[in-house]
Design brief:
This protein is an alpha/beta fold. The protein is 50% helix and 13% strand. The protein contains twelve helices and seven strands. Strand 6, helix 11 and strand 7 form a beta-alpha-beta unit. It is globular, with a radius of gyration of 18 Å. The two termini are 28 Å apart.
Length: 208
């Protein structure tokens, strides 16, 4: 019947800042004198735009080498981006990990769509158990295209045979949410695990 909203039966997770607590500040607070120095370094040297190119497929080692050549005065700090990558993680976000387990116990299909450098993702998969619960993950660095490009969403749908209209996509970034919504996904902008749990209950995916 026209106007009926399709039932959501699948969850698609963003990973960074939703399931996994990743932030380069965790590393650089150990290496620089104060928060102002950390922010300056991440705003001016190892910038979000520079990192995003790794999400789009550029090898991290290549990006680090090129940037260290451009900023030789920061070469040691820049090389730490790859040499001490694992120190950028605080671990799984406990409440989100619990939601993944709860959904899995009810056999709700769950997938991941993440902006992540290709060569770094196997390390995360080995380290964080929640990621191994997901039935499949599309990793931007492996695809050569990153969110918010619609193309990477289409690859997710095609690879796993998903229907956007019956899939709930959760992400913390507004521009990724906007793309997903335009493609017909049900969407939730992540703020806290508790708020997302309430949405899952509302959708009938978890009991109240």
């Amino acid at each position: 019947m026209a106007g009926v909203t399709p039932h959501v039966d699948t969850v698609v997770w963003d990973l960074g800042a939703v399931v996994i607590d990743w932030d380069p500040r965790y590393l650089y607070r150990r290496l620089l004198s104060d928060d102002a120095a950390v922010e300056a370094f991440l705003d001016e040297v190892c910038t979000p735009a520079w990192h995003h190119r790794h999400d789009e497929g550029r090898p991290v080692a290549q990006g680090v080498a090129e940037l260290a050549e451009t900023h030789p005065e920061h070469a040691t700090l820049i090389r730490a981006y790859v040499d001490r990558w694992d120190e950028m993680f605080a671990g799984e976000i406990e409440g989100s990990a619990a939601l993944i387990e709860a959904l899995d116990s009810l056999r709700v299909p769950q997938f991941g769509l993440t902006n992540w450098p290709a060569e770094m993702f196997p390390r995360a998969l080995a380290r964080f158990p929640s990621l191994r619960v997901l039935r499949g993950v599309v990793v931007s660095g492996e695809e050569g295209v990153a969110k918010p490009s619609p193309e990477v969403f289409h690859r997710l749908l095609d690879r796993f045979g998903l229907d956007a209209s019956s899939s709930l996509f959760v992400d913390d970034a507004p521009r990724n949410i906007d793309t997903a919504a335009a493609l017909g996904f049900a969407v939730h902008r992540f703020s806290t695990p508790a708020a997302f749990r309430a949405r899952l209950v509302e959708e009938g995916l978890l009991p109240g």
